[in-house]
Amino acid sequence: MTDRSRLLRGGARAVTGLLVVAAAAAGVVLLGNVPLPAVAREPLALTVDTTQNTNRSLVCAGSFSELGADPEQPGVAIPVGEATVATSGAAAETATLARSAGSGLPVVVSAPMADPLASAQLQSIDSENLRGAAASSCSEPSNEQWLVGGATSLGLATTLSLGNPGTVPATVSITVFDENGEVDAVQTAGVIVAPGTQQTVSLNGYAPDRERLAVRVESTGAPVAAHLGVAQSSGITPFGISGVTPQTDPATSLVIPAVENADGDGRGPNDSGEGDAFPAIVRALAPGDAGGTATVRALDQNGTSTDLGTIELAPKAVGELSIATLPAGTNALVVEADVPVIAGALGSAEDPDTREHDFEWFAPAPIIAADTEVAAPLISGGRLVVVNPSDAEAEITIVRADGKGKTTSAAVAPGAAAVISAPAGATITSSEPVHAGVRAVTETAIAGYPILAPDPRDGTLTVYPR
């Protein structure tokens, strides 16, 4: 083959290659501008019930703890006696938490998440150093909770119990607030609560000589259940005891059901010459950086609302309203503020003949959603109080949790707080959102607690499998 032939053949191949490349490029451009049929497929989504086969646990405070019961350890809280636990709902199992001293161990009640469950405890004490009745709701462990009540001034002792029903240790941070603001952080510290145990600490040691107390409890590692125990003496004479149920979140509107102040009947005026001998008290705390104003009003069974006064709130300081005379027939208090607050109310009882006195710190109750079955345990002698904050009448259906007995009903007027008849182990369902609580009052004792509706957490999770 001559050189000229080789050149001609090579040129022809080059031209052919260029034509192929050009044709391919033109095809790409053409395909890019011509719409092609698309295949669309929605991602597969599965909804999973995260509460299936899980249990809900409630922790009771256990027996009341007395400071100074051991002269050699005056700062140590020693459990005294035993509390009685009332439970409503199909409890799957019960257990106890261990602690270093005393009997009357804290009870843990558990049941499937989907079943109504609530428990409360009552303890009556009549000893040389303590006298009265203390009640509280058994609460679900939480990573953050608040408590209002008590003091550490002369004659008053306040303890904080921390129960950990979990399987890992809990590291608990305690922040104390008083009438002047947040207590110096140097005086508060972390507490380690081992799995399956309860620790009780003295707030008299954390914040001595305080007239008003509020406590924030935060835990990491495991959630805990917190309760306060408050004891008071007048000289060497016991003056009363109280248990305090925790509340979870500050809010601009709080309902405190089942409040009563029975001490004024037949006992004349207080030291100022007016009002009840031992006035009812409302305390509130604005835990944020801004202060505000809280108004307090009383509700009765007819829906009558009576303004009682206001509390001026400095940031992080516990404010107080003393109510000279609680209106007759009061069954609940409403605290409304222009900033989120926590609150509590003090009521008293005293026998005019024996002068035996008692008091109780009542805590706010969470809202019970309409058409939701909620367990409502009643302690011995307890009366159920239902508060209807809506503008429509609430129809309450009451059944026994064990399924025995007849279903009954009661109507609560708009804006009313009414005492309704219910068995000891009841569940209630309301046609309107309501709040509920229980109180037990005699001439020489007063106790009460809120009905704690389950946390309305979302029990579903959407999963997108690959």
From TrEMBL:
<dbReference type="Pfam" id="PF18986">
    <property type="entry name" value="DUF5719"/>
</dbReference>
<dbReference type="InterPro" id="IPR043777">
    <property type="entry name" value="DUF5719"/>
</dbReference>
<protein>
    <recommendedName>
        <fullName>Large extracellular alpha-helical protein</fullName>
    </recommendedName>
</protein>
